[in-house]
Amino acid sequence: MVYFPGQYTGNQGAYTPVTARPLPPELLRLRGISARNMQEHYKLYQGYVHKTNEIRSLLRTVDRATANATYSPLRALKVEESYATNGAKLHELYFGNLGGPGGRPAQDLYDFIVRSFGSYEAWETDFKASGLAVRGWATLSFDPDDGFLHNYSMDAHNAGLVVHMIPLLVMDVYEHAYYMDYGTDRKGYIEAFFQNIDWAAVEARLHALKH
């Protein structure tokens, strides 16, 4: 999301509106994932950005005196803020690591994967299986606490997130990511995803952590 700091203030402090990032044109020319599917997918992402702004606006004036863990307006907004905001950010990471030639990563990242998983093939097998095992997202993430890469999975935008993980490669496995092209064949979609990975973008995310 693109942030515009300091444009609004309210009685609960600053409110920072966000706007959707544009869909890269190369994502309309993917192998095995249609332009129509990507256009519809992008509309869904725009919806998460819109709802993030709506929720943050409502949080400026919600009654905090009635806060309650069973139900309260504040609880509802806080729960859905994490859903909408994560939904937007995860989609940005997903779109950002597509549009490449697939294949294998450059040597530095390849070697890091081998150190973390034993072999590249072991990582790929586990990542693809992770994408079949959950309902939402599969990620190759860096854990700064142990210094290794891990495949983490999420059942929803705000369910399964591992604290302090840093996603490097993100794969959307919600039905909306593939149903138009593949029906219930999620395996076929995952193979198409691998054919379009932009490893340079993934490597740039890892490189940014070192500087």
UniProtKB/TrEMBL annotation:
It is an enzyme of class 1 (oxidoreductase). Its EC number is 1.15.1.1. SUPFAM superfamilies: Fe,Mn superoxide dismutase (SOD), C-terminal domain, Fe,Mn superoxide dismutase (SOD), N-terminal domain. The keyword Metal-binding applies. Keywords: Metal-binding, Oxidoreductase. The keyword Oxidoreductase applies. InterPro entries: Fe/Mn_Superoxide_Dismutase (IPR050265), Mn/Fe_SOD (IPR001189), Mn/Fe_SOD_C (IPR019832), Mn/Fe_SOD_N_sf (IPR036324), SOD_C_sf (IPR036314). Pfam families: Sod_Fe_C. Mn(2+) binds at H41, H91, D172, H176. Residues 106-205 form the Manganese/iron superoxide dismutase C-terminal domain. GO terms for molecular function: metal ion binding; superoxide dismutase activity. Belongs to the iron/manganese superoxide dismutase family. This is superoxide dismutase.
